[in-house]
Amino acid sequence: MHDGNYGLYAMFDQMLFLENSKEDPAQQGLGIFAKIAGAPENRNLFSTEIDGGIIYKGAIPGRDYDVVGFATSYLKISDDVARFQRDIRDIAMIPISISDYETVYEWTYRAQITPWLVIQPDVQWVIHPGGSAAKEDAMVFILQTTLRF
């Protein structure tokens, strides 16, 4: 048992290039983002997270409010969790895979269909789902919609 918990993170989100002036309501251009986070290994499933990606708003002429993006995420399973799993495998003789990390690659396109309707297809490739190499990689297909009224 442990008393308390905490985590630390730092984020960065920056437009690198604007096609037009800052007064352009669509704010078309190229942007990047990144995040790194950490938490104590002795009380958290994940000890380290690193995320990052790139987006372009208005990449297709005439589609000023659409956004295309690519992102990746890496989650490191706590060494304490892996050590516990090894103990279960070695001492209790229970066949169990040892967790190490999960990585996700994501591609998305956010289409502003009307001022009140957004459709966003998203594809994710998940490597080591749940942090386990014993599980097959997964492809995830998502269709998100937003209605404003």
Give structural attributes.
7 strands, 149 residues, elongated, seven-stranded antiparallel β-sheet, mainly beta, 9% helix, single chain, 53% strand, 1 helix
Structure in words:
It is a single chain. With 149 residues, this protein is mostly beta strands. The mean pLDDT is 93. A 7-stranded antiparallel β-sheet has the order 1-2-3-4-5-6-7. 9% of the residues lie in helices and 53% in strands. The radius of gyration is 20 Å and the shape is elongated.
Q: What is the beta-strand fraction?
A: over 45%
Largest sheet report: 7 strands, antiparallel
Principal-axis shape: elongated
**Tally of DSSP helical segments:** 1
Mean pLDDT: 93
Separation of termini?
48 Å
Give the SSE map.
Blueprint: E1 8-18, E2 29-38, E3 46-57, E4 67-77, H1 79-91, E5 101-114, E6 117-127, E7 138-147
Antiparallel strand pairs: 1-2, 2-3, 3-4, 4-5, 5-6, 6-7
Task: Write a short abstract of this structure.
Helix content is about 10%, strand content about 55%. By secondary structure, the chain is mainly β.
